[in-house]
Amino acid sequence: MSERARELVDKLIRNYRDANLEREVRDPLYETLCCRLGRGTAACKLGASVDTVPPGKRACPYHFHHAQEEMFVILSGEGTLRVAGEMLPVREDNVIFIPPGPEYPHQLINTSHTSMTYLSVSTQDSPEICEYPDSGKYFAAMSRADGSWFGAIQKTSASLDYWQDEP
């Protein structure tokens, strides 16, 4: 393979079975073994990851995005999609589409007795605000030119006056 071909492979192709895995745990509800596939690629407007969630766990809190759209593909196992106040069964080969906005707060929960693995694909629109209805928090973030994110997590009840600390 030429050097140019190797560079293209590094920027454009990922095999999720060969990717570095990160274990994220926050007892008692959250645990996932995940790989963030988009990191280090040429992707500018798409993010992708694969999460494996053990029985009884979830990968992230119930939330919704103001800008980003998400798609989930259940690769193996089954569980529950908590969405818009409802609990919907999901299983292997289901494809889930979540548009941005407060109409579709969502969370995948492994309610089965075996691991559930899913692929997440999302737009990386910026600026982004993500809200967490269970805790009353929001995450405001903006993408930088280098592809990293700048952000802050706040409670909606802790908002500041527009003129506070201004000269």
Summarize this structure briefly.
The protein is mainly beta and 167 residues long. The chain is built from one helix and 13 strands; from the N terminus they run H-E-E-E-E-E-E-E-E-E-E-E-E-E.
Could you characterize the architecture of this molecule?
- This protein has 167 residues and is mainly β.
- The protein has a domain at 18-125: Sandwich (Jelly Rolls).
- Helices cover 6% and strands 46% of the residues.
- It is built from one helix and 13 strands.
- The protein has a six-stranded antiparallel sheet, with no helix packed on it. A four-stranded antiparallel sheet has the order 4-11-12-13, with no helix packed on it.
- The longest helix is centred in the N-terminal third of the chain and has 10 residues, at 3-12.
- The model has no long low-confidence stretch (mean pLDDT 92).
Which helices and strands occur, and which strands form pairs?
Layout: H1 3-12, E1 22-26, E2 30-36, E3 46-53, E4 64-65, E5 70-76, E6 78-83, E7 86-91, E8 95-98, E9 106-109, E10 116-123, E11 128-132, E12 137-143, E13 149-155
CATH class of the domain at 18-125: Mainly Beta
The number of helical runs is 1
Instruction: Tell the overall outline.
Output: globular
* CATH architecture grouping of the domain at 18-125: Sandwich
The helix-strand sequence is: HEEEEEEEEEEEEE
Rg, nearest Å: 18 Å
Cα end-to-end separation: 60 Å
Which strand order do you get reading across the main beta sheet? 1-2-3-10-5-8
Number of strands: 13
Strand content: over 45%
Which fold name fills CATH's third level, the topology of the domain at 18-125? Jelly Rolls
Largest sheet: number of strands, sense, barrel closure = 6 strands, antiparallel
Mean pLDDT: 92
CATH superfamily of the domain at 18-125: Jelly Rolls
Helix content: under 10%
Which structural class should the secondary elements be placed in? mainly beta
Return residue spans where pLDDT drops below 50 for at least 5 consecutive residues.
Answer: none
